[in-house]
Write a structure and sequence with these properties.
The complex is a heterotrimer of chains A (196), B (318) and C (142). Chain A is α/β, with parallel strands linked by helices and 196 residues long. Chain A has 6 helices and 8 strands. Chain A is globular, with a radius of gyration of 16 Å. In chain C, strand 3 and strand 4 form a beta hairpin. The chains are: A alpha/beta (196), B alpha/beta (318), C alpha+beta (142). The structure holds guanosine-5'-triphosphate and magnesium ion.
Chain lengths: 196, 318, 142
Amino acid sequence: MSGELKLLFAGAMGAGKTTAIRAISEIAPITTEATNGDFTECDKEETTVAMDYGEITLPTGEKLRLYGTPGQARFGFMWPILAAGALGVVILIDNSRPDPLADLELYIDAFRALADAGAVIVGVGHMESCPRPSLEAYAERLAALDVVVPVMPADARRHSDVVGMLEILLQQIEATWAYDEVMGGVSACGLMGANS
Amino acid sequence: MDPTKGVVTYGFHGMADSENVLLQSMIERISRRLPAPVARVPARDAQLVFFDDAAPRPDGITGRLVRVVRDMDAQRFSGGLRMPPHVTDLLDIFAEFVEQETYAETGCGVMKSLVRSLHDLFQAGGAPHALVDGDGAGLILYPADRQFSWSGPDDERLLPEWFQSHRLRGLDLRPWAASTNQQHRKRRGIEPVFWHMGLAHARCGLLPWVGRDDALKMRAWPYLAGQGPAGAIRLATALRARPQNVAALADAARVPEAEAVAFANAALLCGFVVPAIPTETYAERGEANTRGADPGPVDATRWPRLLGAIRSALGISA
Amino acid sequence: MSVRTLPLELIADLDNEVRGLHARVSGVIGCVLATTDGRQVSAVVDNEADPQRVSAMVGSIVALGETIGREVMIGRTQFVAVSAVGGMILLQRVPAQRDLLVVGTLARHNTNLGILLHETGITAVAAGKILDEWLGRDRQSA
Ligand SMILES: Nc1nc2c(ncn2[C@@H]2O[C@H](COP(=O)(O)OP(=O)(O)OP(=O)(O)O)[C@@H](O)[C@H]2O)c(=O)[nH]1
Ligand SMILES: [Mg+2]
C-alpha cells in the first residue's frame, strides 16, 4: 500500500464527520447513510453506517483520501479497518451530547497508537451552544489518560475550521516524523495495522 | 546594560573577521542614534553576542544571543539580524535590549514576586484574594477552585493588559471577603490569567523556579496557544514530540528564544507543561522507536515533499 | 422510529419469521434481523457469534453493497453474499415502504446457495409485510 495517503475522521455520532469531509472533498463524497432509528442517541435523520469517502488531488497528482467512520460504538469494528495506514486521525466530539468526555475517552482508546504517535487532533463541535465541558476539561481528561493531543473548538460546517484542524494535525505529524528521523531513521507512520 | 557605566557591550561569535569589522564600523556609525553608549568586547564578556546561525551554539557565553540571518527574503525576525546588515535591525536590537535591561532592573522584581505569590497561593488552594490595580479595578481569585472573576465588568480583552509593566507597580494582592452582591459574578478557569502573566514574565526570563537547562515536558495540550506568542502552536508541537529545554525548543520550533521562554512560562504556570524528570527523556525515545516498526505507507524520504503537497492542496501556508 | 419504540408484538412477529427460517432450512445456523443503522431487532444464532455485533456489520455491509452497486452503475443491489471456507452469509434489505430493516442469514458451507437466497427472500418479504402493516396501523392511529 505504499502509494496510499489517507486521513481519517472519527468521533461521536452527529459530531460532523460526514459534514467535515463534505466541506473539503473535491469530489462528491461517497456516503453510506442509513435512516437513523435512535433519536435518543442523536436527533438527526441519517447516520453513517459503513464509511464516508472523499478525495483531494495534490499538486503532485497523488490523491489524498479522506475517510469518515460511523460514530456509534457498535460500528467500532470499522474503525481499525479504516484507520489502517492512515497518516492521522481527526477525532470530532459533539459537546451537546450527554457525556462528551466519555466519548473522548472511547475514541482516544480506539486510536491510542496514533494518539501516542502524535497523529491525532481533537475538534470539539457545538461549543457555541454548549460551552461545557470546556477545553480545559478536555485537556485535563487527556492528561489523565496520559496522552497529549491537541484540542480545539471546531465547527465541521466551516471549511476554515476543518482546514485549521488539519493544519495542526500536519504540524504534529511533521514534528514526530522529524524526531523519528533524528532518532535513527525509523520509518515514519503506518501506525495502525488493520488488525491492531 | 552595565548600570554603573551605562554602557552596552557587544561581541561576535562564529562570524568572518571581515563581517565583524563591517558590523563594528556600522554600529559605531549609528552610535549617536543608539539609546546608550556601546563598546565591543570579547564574546565571552559581552552582553549582546551576534552569532552565526550556522556556527555551533557558543559555549561559555552568558550574554544575550542575536542570530545572524542570511536568508535574503527573511522578514526581520525578532531578535535576529539580517546580513548584509540592516541599520534598522541594529537600532531595534539595541533599543530592545536597553528597554529590557532597564525593565529587568526595576519591573522584574515586582513581576517575579507577583508570579511567585500567585503561584504559591494557587498551589496551596487558599482563600479568595483580590488582585487590585491603582484604579481599584481588579480580578477576584478563587485558588481552591482554580477560578477567577472580574470585579468590574467582564472583559476578556483586558487580560493581556493586566501584567504590563506600567500597571505592575500598582498591583496589590489581598485577601477578599465576598459581599452578597458580588456572589453572582461569572467565574471562569484561572488559566487565561496565568497564561498572560507567563507571557508578560518573559521579559524577565524564565519563571524563577525553572532553570534554563531544565528539560520541559508537555502534560496537556495548551489550548490557549491561540492567545500568543506567535509561534505557540509550533512550540507546543515541538515540545509534544519530545521533552527538551527552552533553547532546544526554540531551535526545534524555529522561533526566537524569547518566544520559547514566553510560551514555557505561560504553559508552566497553567500546568500544561511540567519539568521533566531526567530519565523520562530517554524513556520516551524508546517508545518513539518501537512504535514505528510497522513499515508505513509513506517512505521517509518522501514526507517533506508530501506534507508540502497536502498543505498546498488545502491552501495552508507552511 | 426508534427500536426502543418498536412494540413488543411487532418484535414478536418478526421473531417468529426469524425462527421460522432457522427451523425450515436445514443448513441455516443463524438469522439476524437488524435496523439499517445496525441495531439488533431479532436474532437466532447457533454458534458463538455475537448477534449485536453481527447486526451492526449487517447494516454496514448492506449499505456498502448498495453503495458499490450504485458506483459501478449496475442498478439496485439485491443482496450481498460472503462465502467463506466454513460457511456463508447472505445479507439483504427488507423490502418495505420504508427502508428500516436488513436481514442476514448464516449457513453451513454445504448449503445450496439458491435455496438460501430463496428462503432468505421469503423471510425478508414476510418481515417487510409485517413492518408495512404496523406502519399503516401506526399512521391510522396517529
Ligand atoms: N450548531 C452546530 N452544528 C454543527 C456543528 N458541527 C456540525 N454540526 C451539524 O451537526 C450535524 C452533523 O452531522 P453529520 O456530519 O452527519 O455527523 P456525523 O459525525 O457524520 O454523524 P454519524 O455519521 O451519524 O456518526 C450536521 O447537521 C452539521 O451541520 C457545530 O459546531 N455547531
Ligand atoms: Mg456521518
